[in-house]
Design a protein that fits this description.
homodimer, alpha+beta, Alpha-Beta Plaits, 4-stranded antiparallel sheet, 3 helices, 4 strands
């Protein structure tokens, strides 16, 4: 489940969120978005965990591939629903992964 | 709990991990490392979540501050203990946060 990403550099989107108490349909949509993302051009991998705070990190080949994913039509509807219903607050950080190592 | 980070650019360390079943003393050490990190020069914030996978993202002013934290003596002991005992595998990614936005 640790994403197998290529040699650096590549890009990461860190999505950190706090949910509201109204999470009907959330899991279904979240799973659907992961499936959609995996089929996007430039997608490299995704990692996700949630306790009180949720953190999802997706990895991408380029800033262009991140932009295309942000503007994907079904994803845009999910983003709107997220703001209206599921998320109390969130933060998105677009990053260039400069170096990595593993154990 | 979403980290209040300054204007971009700044740096992020994404630490993704899978644990072994032997987690004695882990929480105590993990909490101690967060306290230590908060007192490091250049520390900006930290976010953490764990299910099957654990994701901790720490934010830093510069690559130099990340390097200093990596080499902090008590932290180095904890890293060693992590490899010997707590982590089945992990990946560390050093990133430059180029852009962010929030809701």
């Amino acid at each position: 489940m640790i994403a197998k990403t290529p040699k650096t550099p590549y890009y990461a989107v860190i999505f950190t969120s706090k949910m509201t108490d109204f999470n009907k349909d959330y899991d279904k949509t979240a799973n659907r978005m992961v499936e959609l993302a995996k089929n996007q051009k430039g997608f490299l991998g995704i990692e996700s965990a949630r306790n009180d705070l949720g953190i999802t990190v997706s990895y991408w080949e380029s800033l262009e591939s991140i932009k295309s994913w942000k503007n994907e039509s079904e994803h845009k509807l999910a983003q709107q629903k997220g703001k209206e219903t599921w998320y109390a607050s969130f933060k998105v950080r677009i990053c260039k992964v400069e170096r990595d190592y593993e154990f």
